[in-house]
CCD27 protein (Notiomystis cincta), 196 residues
Amino acid sequence: TGAISSLQRQMEIQESELRQIRSEKEMLQKQLREREIQLQAVSDKFCSLTEEQRQEEVIVMMEEENCSLQQVVTEQESQLAEQNKLISELQGTISQLQAEVVTTRLHLLEQKQAHKEIQSQAEALQHQELQTRVALERISKRFERYRNKIIQAAFSVEGSQDPSAELTDDEVLEAMQKIINERMEFQRRLKSKGSK
């Protein structure tokens, strides 16, 4: 947004300079028209003089006026050429700035779109994390219930002693393995005696 504002300010400055140059050009053209009016006035004035006076005055005045006008025309043509060149350069600069504004706006739109996509992905991940936490909590509860059942089964056997402290998972597995081994040994003995 700052880049767009800067580019727009530059465009406004360039357009202001362009308007000023065009105004100066119009002023020069107005001066030329005024010169033409003055020449016409001089011409009308000489019409009232005698032929001989008129010719002499006209020759002198025309030479002076021609010299002056030639100088003015040369200067104005030079100024107009410079102004036309500057106008062309300013128009090129304005076109370039307009292209940069368009490019910057497109870049901002792309960034907004990317931000929306990232935000959407983040929301999806948060939802997935919540679901995972719920599933983990359920699994943890089921595991704890299963662990408690194993402990009850392992230490409810006649002759076994209740654990004096909190059992580790390894101790629970060891107790469970002991029960399994005893049952397998019991089955083996029954089979050896021929019992079903």
